[in-house]
Amino acid sequence: MLYGLEEKISDFKRIVSEKKLSQSYLFFGDPQIGKFTFAGALVNFLETGEFVPPSKDKPLVDAEFFLPEESGNIGIETVRRFKQFIYQRPFSSSRRTAIFDSAQSLTPEAQNALLKIIEEPPQFALIIFIANEISVFPQTLVSRFAKVYFPRLSQKSLEKYLKENCKLNSSDLSLTAKQSFGRIGRAIQLLEDSSKKKNLADPESLPEYLEEQILFLRKNLLKNSSKLAWLLEREELIKRYNLNPKLQFKAISQKING
Q1: Residue 190 phi, psi dihedral angles, 5° rounding
Q2: I want to staple 126 with a disulfide (CB 3.0 to 4.6 A). Which of 37, 57, 95, 187 is the partner?
Q3: Could you tell me if residue 1 is inside a domain?
Q4: Model confidence pLDDT, tens digit, residues 127-150
């Protein structure tokens, strides 16, 4: 989804046409705001001339996406695959592009191994890191990247998108935009889930609920500091001990609304 990213599309088209594209970029910003989709559209543009997300029916030849492994980390094995890929010359594109999604998941060993390549990449290479924030990376690594920030959309912009693309009455439209916290991916997910009426006992929905509550509390840190501290501690306990989702929903709701 590239809605709200028109200015970035224009900027990158110009950069490519002027042959000023950097060899490494860090796309950062909150989850579900289009970083991964934009990266895919950029490499598709380099290969096909169309600035749209690549089609599943026509996979890209000169781009590869490197994702977290089953452990949740991106380790040395993934870096080895990356090395094999990035040193091959491109066939259909001007660049051989490697995209690391959730790059904050890179282990320290993987970061060190990547640093050597990022310092002196092949001339035809393009390396894109996608992460929520910059501070998770050591300065020695992050200083090698051109940084591109992806902001959240305003509620007004989200409402406009929902009005143009979804069949919603005005109250549902406004509520969905409000609950999305400026994240267009979240808005789409909410619409997809609304028909399913997601079970609160579903473990997959708990992280999303936690994130929403944390973002809500952060809007007024002075007033909500104690609740936020409790919620962040609770989040860590849930991750560490795999606590019962249904009971955690109840406890969090009581704490936040109490």
Answers
A1: -60, -40
A2: 95
A3: no
A4: 999 999 999 999 999 999 999 999
CA–chain centroid gap for 172, Å, is 26
**Are residues 131 and 210 located together in one domain of the fold?**
no
Residues 100, 227, single domain; the answer is: no
Q: CA 165, CA 159: separation in Å to the nearest integer?
A: 10
The number of beta carbons lying within 10 Å of the beta carbon of residue 35 is 26
The number of C-alpha atoms within 13 Å of 53 and in the hemisphere containing its C-beta is 11
The torsion region of residue 240 among left (phi > 0), alpha (psi -120 to 50) and beta comes to: alpha
**Which of 69, 256, 30, 46 shows the shortest CA–CA distance to 152?**
30
Q: Based on the domain organization, do 68 and 191 belong to the same domain?
A: no
Query: Residue 189's domain spans which residues?
Result: 153-197
Q: Are 86 and 116 members of one domain?
A: yes
**Per-residue pLDDT reduced to its tens digit, 75-93:** 999 999 999 999 999 999 9
Assigned domain for 131 exists: yes
Looking at the DSSP bridge assignments, the partners of residue 96 are 125
Q: What is the mean pLDDT of the chain?
A: 87
Do 36 and 57 fall within a single domain?
A: yes
Check whether residue 70 and residue 100 sit in a common domain. Answer: yes
- How many domains would you assign to the chain? 3
- Same structural domain, 164 and 210: no
**pTM of the shown model:** 0.73
Would you give the DSSP letter of residue 136? T
- Indicate the SS3 state at residue 61: coil
**Res 100 pLDDT > 80:** yes
Tokens in use for 69?
């492994």
